[in-house]
Amino acid sequence: MDPITEWIAAWRIPIGRWGQEFFDFLTTNFSWFFNTLADVLADILDGMVDFLLWLPPSVVVLLIAALAYLRQRSWQLAVGVIAGLFFIINQGLWGETVETLVLVVAAAAVSMAIGVPVGIWAAHSARVYHGLRPILDLMQTLPTFVYLIPVLILFGLGAAPGLIVTVIFASPAPIRLTYLGITSVPKPMLEAGQAFGATKWQLLWKVELPAALPSIMAGLTQCIMLSLSMVVIAALIGADGLGKPVVRALNTVNIPLGLEAGLAIVILAIILDRVARISRDIDK
Length: 284
Description:
Layout lengths: L2 H8 L4 H40 L2 H16 L2 H16 L3 H31 L1 H16 L2 H12 L3 H12 L1 H12 L3 H9 L4 H30 L1 H5 L7 H10 L2 H22 L3 H4 L1
Helix pairs in contact: 2-5, 2-7, 2-8, 3-4, 3-14, 4-14, 5-6, 5-8, 5-9, 5-11, 7-8, 8-11, 9-11, 10-11, 11-14, 13-14
């Protein structure tokens, strides 16, 4: 080893120790907050799961198929939804699918509730966008397993940390796409609104958001796909759902179980993507 390399290695920056001290400080002084938040989130998620499992599976399937038809006006999609969900029931994975569905929908809803306002804010403030950009880059490039360590330390095992880590992973997509949609609104549209005396809020609600809707909905579908990609990883920190049989299949080299659970995730992803996709009428 050359002298320069030895000198650099000798003055190692104690990042790991600083991180440990930071999380020790948080767990010592704010454990009550993290425990309360985890309990509240777990109660909400468990309540939603219990309600859906209390309903007959056929009723839930028909409700989802009806929602798909109302969203897209396609009876072929509704039939496909029914066929896909009945296949999942046939494979004995209905309970896990409901748990995954609740986790993904909740994570997507929270991510959009955070991402859309932040994206609008960034679109109207160059300073905010320049400050957010490196943070979003870090969130999207940091390996997903790295998220598990601090979340596990602060919130423990269960559905709540699974939801939180999924929101962290999925939020950058709606932020970026909302920003893109708002900043891509044609200037003549904004000038026309201003010429008619529209206020900033009126421009936002009546001009910018309608014009940016396709991009915002693309952010929703991306958010759903990213949330589903975290299902298996969230299972490693105690989140229930289809990730658990996948992890079990990996640990035991159980090919049939892995194929069944993996196919169920694919079917659920396709259904959610088709239902959340912007309707043809708006596309036109």
